[in-house]
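Final report, Chapter 2: Outcomes

The project's central promise was a pipeline that accepts a single protein chain and returns its three-dimensional structure in a standardized token representation, suitable for archiving and comparison. That pipeline is now operational. To close this chapter, we reproduce one record exactly as it appears in the project archive, with the input sequence first and the structure output second.
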Amino acid sequence: MYPFRLCAIALSHLSRLTQTIVGLLLLFITLLGWSSPVQAANPVSPQFEEQVLQVIREHPEVILESVQAYQQLVQQQLQQAQQAFVEELKTNPQAVIGESPTTGASQSKIVMVEFSDFQCPYCARAHKTVQRFMAKHQDQVTLTYKHYPLASIHPQAISAAKAAWAAFQQGKFWEYHDVLFTQQEKLGESFYIETAKGLKLNVDQFNRDRNSQAAETAISQDIQLAESLGITGTPFFVMNGEVFTGAIELEEMEKRFTRVKQSL
């Protein structure tokens, strides 16, 4: 993973940590100041708030211990969620794939799930690796794509995801997917239409599908899955029991593939 992405993740965690500390402070004040119906009728006085804050200043370790315990709990929950996902991928891959697009082997013991964002530059780099990898192992690996558009930093990510989903409805997901990644700098409304025409899609149906509630729901489900697994950046891959992220090189992906085959 690149330093920029590490910094972004670190800042995200720091922001959550700050929010947690503030929440705990407010909760502490609330519990002390509104402990009975009689007290609830009377707002907490500024003097009392200051006394509580002074106690916290003198004993900050209480807050830190609470935050650390909370972080450990969240981390355990995410690890459990990822372990459950990996186990289901190995034992019941179709349940994980669901209605997502697939390519490669139709029936395989090796399934690679990719969570990706069409406007993410790291995803575009990883796309080249995935293409080369699948060209070599398409008879051994099933690749499935999950949408994880990072809309807060990529303004075209959701629109591109909806366009790709609409192409999927006409059996052209992977062709559309390839164009989006290879011409990422062109993402925008006119480009989505132009690409649909270039792939000889029914443009009226394409527009209806990408603007439909069904498209919204399908992409939201993928996002919810990614968030439940604690995924904070793209691209993110799971190949049976192997989890890896970032603009991975082909040599590294091959190593993961070898370990997966040896574990079967």
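Archive annotation: Confidence is low (pLDDT under 50) at residues 1-15, 32-40.
This record, like all others produced under the grant, will remain available to the consortium after the project formally closes.
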